[in-house]
Amino acid sequence: MKAAAKCDASKSCSYLTTPPLNCQHHKNRCRHTKGDIRALARGSTRKILKKLPDGANNEVAAYSKISQDGALRGIMPKFIREIEYKGDCFIESEDLLWRYPNPKERYIIDVKLGTRLVSENGRRRPTAPTEQERRDESINKLRYMKFREEQSSTSTLGFRIDVAKLPSGKLQKDLKRHIKTKEQVLEEILGGQKWAVRKQLRQRLMTIRAGVENSQFFQSHEVVGGSLLIVFDSFVADAWLIDFAKVTKVPDGVVLNHHPNTDGYLTGLDSLIEIFQSYQ
Q1: For the chain: N or C, fewer Cβ within 10 A?
Q2: SS3 letters for 191-220?
Q3: What parts of the chain have a pLDDT lower than 70?
Q4: CA nearest 188: which of 111, 280, 75, 267?
Q5: Are 228 and 241 contacting, i.e. CB atoms less than 8 angstroms apart?
Q6: Rounded CA gap, 185 and 182, in Å?
Q7: Does domain 107-278 have CATH number 3.50.50.60?
Q8: For the whole model, what pTM was predicted?
């Protein structure tokens, strides 16, 4: 028996009487990237539903605040509403892929922003678990997270390419470990794409950065694990900020700059802009 609805009762929450489309039956149509499978389903035209983990209302609250921040308008998917169906909660938002209707021509790249992320396990490094910790099967959580972040470009560039979906439909998933330099980032994201596409992405990133810097939400909230979704085909390119499940409001009076001394969110954007500017 399904538990009662877990949506935030303090927020306006709509209720479905018919189920959302099952992502398992529409994988190619409803997912953005690997991480979204089983969590996203197509609602209606130009909309998607993202299933929330049990008891997770943090992202709903974040999107509600973001939707009221004029500085972020147009650089994030439009938040529509929170939906409950048979005890499950969903975020309904704009489908960012509707502008690219032909999946055989589009590239989709999920880039995790920030210097503090949850990365994959890796081979032994100076900060890897000690022999004693291995024997005890325990390790300090903070030290373990730092160790895992070293396995990608997170610690050096402030971002990592999490997953890429190619026009062939193939998902490139093991990108965290071997993409660490700016040259590798350029090759993975752009490859042989036309100059017009590269120029569009560069300009878009600069617009996104300005929005984050001027945003009241970002000045008062730490964002860990947020993503930059990049989508392009042979002619048109765009990017948006997504994923706000791990958002924490800082104490009143504190203003964040999102550089390495905090979550490093802007550090990642700055690195990407520098990379795109060097690719003339």
Answers
A1: N
A2: CCCCHHHHHHHHHHHHHHHHHHHHCHHHHH
A3: 1-44, 55-56, 116-156, 173-180, 182, 186, 188, 190-194, 258, 260-262, 279-280
A4: 111
A5: yes
A6: 5
A7: no
A8: 0.74
Which tens digit of pLDDT belongs to each residue from 71-108?
Answer: 999 999 999 988 888 788 888 899 998 888 888 888 89
State the Cα–Cα distance between residues 252 and 277, nearest whole angstrom: 36
Structure tokens at 48: 């998607």
> What architecture (CATH level 2) is domain 13-94?
2-Layer Sandwich (3.30)
What residue ranges do the domains of the chain occupy? 13-94, 107-278
Measured between alpha carbons, how far is residue 40 from residues 49, 87, 90, 108 in Å?
Answer: 5, 16, 9, 15
Please give the sequence-ordered ranges of beta strands (E in DSSP) within the chain, or none if there are none.
13-15, 40-42, 47-51, 79-85, 88-94, 107-113, 159-165, 171-172, 221-223, 227-232, 237-242, 247-249
